[in-house]
Amino acid sequence: MQLKSLLAGSAMLALLAGCASSPMEQQEEAATAQQNYQGSLPCRNCDGIDLDVTMVGEEMSAAEERTFTLNASYRNHPQTPPDENYAGNWEVLTGTPSDPDATVYELTPDGDGQIYYFMRIDESTLELIDPERRRFENGEMLQLKRQ
User: Fold this and answer.
1) Whose CB has fewer CB within 10 Å in the chain, the N or C terminal residue?
2) Is Lipoprotein there in the keyword field (predicted)?
3) CA distances from 32 to 4, 20, 37, 118, 123 (A)
4) What is the helix (H) or strand (E) element at residue 38, kind and residue range?
5) CB-based contact 37:146 (threshold 8 Å)
6) Coil, strand or helix: which one is 30?
7) Alpha-carbon span 133 to 130, nearest angstrom
8) How far apart are CA 146 and CA 124, in angstroms?
9) Residues 73-131: pLDDT tens digits?
């Protein structure tokens, strides 16, 4: 009889533990829905352009649920231009001229602004590429790392 009580108690404890961990799992899922990438790009007239890109949403989400912010700051530029801040939506494109299986993210700002293209190098690295989805010669200098 004690064994039955012990098993029933263990089952109840396991059930309660499962319920308790469910919100935590939901928080982890929500955390993965936002990805932040940072890096410094070369600049002809300054020490570099610090780029911070935050992408919200999943690749399989509806287009309106995939949003981004992009912030660019120029370090030690002689003309001290203002920071550039964009927000908009991102799309998933497949393929580049050199890699038909590559994943490319197209970031389109709301209103005016340049469309940015980033190729996913791996789970933690994006690389800025041109609008024709070609990599630049100095591609390793154009990479952002996931934070």
Assistant:
1) N
2) yes
3) 41, 20, 13, 19, 12
4) strand 34-41
5) yes
6) helix
7) 5
8) 5
9) 999 999 999 999 999 999 999 999 999 999 999 999 998 889 999 999 999 999 999 99
Question: What is the amino acid identity at position 95?
Answer: G
- 2/32 Cα distance (integer angstroms): 44
130 within 8 A of 115, measured Cβ to Cβ: no
Count CB-CB contacts under 10 A for residue 17: 10
Of the chain, the percentage scoring pLDDT greater than 90 comes to 68
Q: Residue 20, CB half-sphere, CA atoms under 13 Å: how many?
A: 6
CA-based diameter of the chain, in Å? 83
Neighbours of 11 (CB within 10 A): 10
**Both tokens of residue 136?**
């630049």
Q: How far is CA 59 from CA 38, 75, 105, in A?
A: 20, 33, 9
CA distance 59 to 101: 15
